[in-house]
Amino acid sequence: MEKRVRVLVAKPGLDGHDRGAKVVARALRDAGFEVIYTGLRQTPEQIAEAALQEDVNVIALSLLSGAHNHLFPRIVELIREKGMTDVLMIGGGVIPDADIPALKTAGIAEVFTPGTSTTTIIDYINANVN
Predict the structure, then answer these.
(1) Helix (H), strand (E), coil (C) string for the chain
(2) Which domains does the chain have, with CATH numbers?
(3) What pLDDT does residue 15 have?
(4) Digits of tens for pLDDT over the chain (130 positions)?
């Protein structure tokens, strides 16, 4: 029996809107992934600890508040400090195109903006999980 890919879907910061994250979480589950959803208003520390405890392959961050330039790199830093160097980190939400290169430099492998199909996200994870 092959081990299923485990994905942590997380909502960092004070962002209180999670409809998109829930849509993505359901699509990932329907595609055969194990999905752990953290709920709203998680700190970077809570997300990193949940990822470690749940032994995930992927962390999918969703943010609409505009704090992505601060929160996403902080989460990457904490994940790496915990030795989880093989975890694929992706992000999504309302993120300006101009901010995406810096997020990728910080360790976010891919950024999915509004309108991205869930199939695109699923295909990306399947192609990039070690």
Answers:
(1) CCCCCEEEEECECCCCCCHHHHHHHHHHHHCCCEEEECCCCECHHHHHHHHHHHCCCEEEEEECCCCHHHHHHHHHHHHHHCCCCCCEEEEEECCCHHHHHHHHHHCCCEEECCCCCHHHHHHHHHHHCC
(2) 6-128 (3.40.50.280)
(3) 83
(4) 678 999 999 999 998 889 999 999 999 999 999 999 999 999 999 999 999 999 999 999 999 999 999 999 999 999 999 999 999 999 999 999 999 999 999 999 999 999 999 999 999 999 999 7
Which residue has tokens 């990039």?
A: 128
**How far apart (Å, rounded) are the C-alpha atoms in residues 54 and 43?**
16
Among residues 52, 109, 40, the alpha carbon closest in space to that of 84 is found at 52
